[in-house]
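C-alpha cells in:
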C-alpha cells in the first residue's frame, strides 16, 4: 500500500496535544480530517470541470501510521456489475480477480493514496489551515462534553490575565482521573465581578458556571460569574448541613452584587423554611455565634446577607423580608396585582427603605410583591366609595310614584298624634294609697312619670 511520508508524525501529535491541551486521540482525529480536506483539494484541482457534491467524498478516509510516519487515503467502494462512478463503485469481475468469494452489493476498501509529487503544495497549505480549524473544533467539542452537565454549578477558578475588563480564568471540571482536559479558560465579564474582589494573577476564587457557549466565537467558551445568586445558594449548602440533608430549604434568593450606585454595597436576602417544628431555619443558617454565615460573607468579600423566615402568609413574609426594619402593619392593597402598603414607625422609615432604596428593592424582588413604604403616623387610608345621593328631581319622582300606594304606617302615626288617644293607667309607685299616672305612647321608650302634689 502506498504511504505518503510525514516525518516526525508522532512527535508532532504530542506537541500539538500539549500546546492545545487536547488528548492525542483528538489531535489524530483533527489531523485525519485536515488531510482528507487536502486530498479533496487535490482531486478538485485535477479536474476543474467536474461537479462535486457536498457529500461526494464521504466514502473516503485517511489512515495515520505513526510507526511508519505517514498516512494513506482509503476509499470504500460498492461492488457492482457495471461501474458508473469509479470513486464509489468497482466491478465484480475486477474484485474476483483478488477475492473469488466477493458478491454484488458488498463493499471493499481500496488504497487511493496519490503520489507525493501529485499531492501538491496547495493541498499541503489547505491541510494546515484546516488542521488549525479542526483543532479549535475539537477543543469546543471536548469542552461542550465536559462542562455541559456542570452548568449552574460552582467551580474552582484561577485568574490568568485581563482582557477588555474581563478576567480570564482557568477552571477544571473536577472529574479527577476521568477528565480529558486539565484546565479550560473561562471568561468572567465585568458585570459578573464583585466590587470587593481583587483579581490578581493566580488568585483563586469560587465561580458560578452560567453558560457553556456553543458554536464558533471569539474568546473562551465558558462564561462564569461571581455575582450570580446561585453562588450564594451553593455556599449555604456547603456550610449548612441541614440544607444538604433537606431539613432546611432555601425558598428564594434576591441578590444585588453590583448596585447601581458605588455608594451602596453589595447585599443579599435569602428566605429559608423548614417542616420540622424543632428546627429554627434562620438560626441553622447563621450558626453558633454567626460562624456559618460568616464563612459565606468571607467568601463574598464582606457582602451583607439577610437571612429571613419564609411564610405562606404574604403579609408576614413581606414584613420579614424588610428585615432589619421593624414593621407595624402590612396592608395587602391589591392581591391580584400583588401590591402591598407597609406601615412603619417614623424612626424605622429610612431603615425599611434602605440606602438608595436597596432594602425595599431586594424585599420586593424576594417576595414578588410591589411594596410601598408609609409612615404610620401620617398615613391616611383612602376613603371607601360612598353610594350616590339622589337629586331633588329624582326624589320628587320617587315621592310622586308612591302617592297612590296604600301605606298604613303614616295613618297610624297620625292617629297617635292626637292627645285624646293617650290613655292614663294608674300605677302604684309610692304606697298603697297614692297613685301616680304614667303615660305610654307608640314610642317603645317610656315617657318620664308626671308626679303631682296632692
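Residues out:
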Amino acid at each position: 500500500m502506498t504511504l505518503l511520508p510525514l516525518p516526525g508524525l508522532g512527535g508532532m501529535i504530542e506537541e500539538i496535544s500539549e500546546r492545545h491541551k487536547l488528548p492525542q486521540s483528538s489531535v489524530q482525529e483533527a489531523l485525519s480530517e485536515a488531510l482528507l480536506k487536502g486530498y479533496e483539494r487535490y482531486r478538485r484541482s485535477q479536474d476543474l470541470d467536474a461537479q462535486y457534491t457536498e457529500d461526494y467524498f464521504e466514502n473516503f478516509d485517511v489512515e495515520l501510521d505513526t510507526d511508519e510516519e505517514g498516512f494513506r487515503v482509503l476509499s470504500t467502494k460498492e461492488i457492482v456489475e457495471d461501474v458508473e462512478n469509479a470513486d464509489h463503485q468497482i466491478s465484480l469481475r475486477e474484485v474476483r480477480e483478488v477475492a473469488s468469494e466477493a458478491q454484488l452489493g458488498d463493499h471493499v476498501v481500496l488504497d487511493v493514496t496519490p503520489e507525493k509529487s501529485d499531492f501538491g503544495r496547495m493541498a499541503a497549505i489547505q491541510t494546515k489551515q484546516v488542521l488549525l480549524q479542526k483543532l479549535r473544533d475539537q477543543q469546543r467539542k471536548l469542552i461542550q462534553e465536559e462542562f455541559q452537565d456542570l452548568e449552574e454549578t460552582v467551580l474552582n477558578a484561577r485568574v490568568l490575565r485581563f482582557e477588555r475588563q474581563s478576567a480570564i480564568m482557568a477552571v477544571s471540571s473536577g472529574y479527577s482521573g476521568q477528565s480529558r482536559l486539565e484546565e479550560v479558560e473561562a471568561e468572567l465579564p465585568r458585570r459578573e465581578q464583585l466590587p470587593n474582589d481583587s483579581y490578581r494573577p493566580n488568585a483563586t476564587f469560587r465561580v458560578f458556571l452560567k453558560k457553556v457557549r456553543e458554536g464558533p466565537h471569539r474568546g473562551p467558551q465558558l462564561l462564569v460569574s461571581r455575582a450570580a445568586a446561585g453562588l450564594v445558594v451553593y455556599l449555604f449548602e456547603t456550610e449548612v448541613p441541614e440544607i444538604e440533608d433537606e431539613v432546611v430549604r432555601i425558598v428564594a434568593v434576591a441578590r444585588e452584587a453590583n448596585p447601581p450606585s458605588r455608594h451602596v454595597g453589595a447585599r443579599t436576602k435569602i428566605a429559608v423554611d423548614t417542616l420540622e417544628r424543632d428546627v429554627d431555619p434562620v438560626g441553622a443558617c447563621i450558626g453558633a455565634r454567626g460562624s456559618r454565615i460568616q464563612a459565606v460573607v468571607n467568601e463574598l468579600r464582606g457582602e451583607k446577607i439577610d437571612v429571613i423566615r419564609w411564610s405562606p402568609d404574604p403579609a408576614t413574609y413581606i414584613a420579614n423580608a424588610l428585615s432589619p426594619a421593624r414593621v407595624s402593619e402590612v396592608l395587602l392593597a391589591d392581591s391580584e396585582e400583588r401590591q402591598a402598603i407597609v406601615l412603619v414607625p417614623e424612626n424605622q422609615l429610612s431603615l425599611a427603605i434602605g440606602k438608595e432604596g436597596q432594602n425595599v428593592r431586594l424585599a420586593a424582588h424576594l417576595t414578588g410583591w410591589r411594596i410601598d413604604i408609609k409612615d404610620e403616623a401620617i398615613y391616611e387610608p383612602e376613603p371607601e366609595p360612598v353610594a350616590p345621593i339622589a337629586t331633588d328631581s329624582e326624589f320628587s319622582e320617587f315621592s310622586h310614584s308612591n302617592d297612590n300606594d296604600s301605606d298604613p304606617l303614616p295613618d297610624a302615626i297620625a292617629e297617635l298624634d292626637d292627645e285624646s288617644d293617650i290613655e292614663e293607667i294608674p300605677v302604684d309607685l309610692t304606697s298603697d294609697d297614692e297613685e301616680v299616672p304614667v303615660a305610654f305612647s307608640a314610642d317603645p321608650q317610656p315617657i318620664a312619670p308626671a308626679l303631682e302634689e296632692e
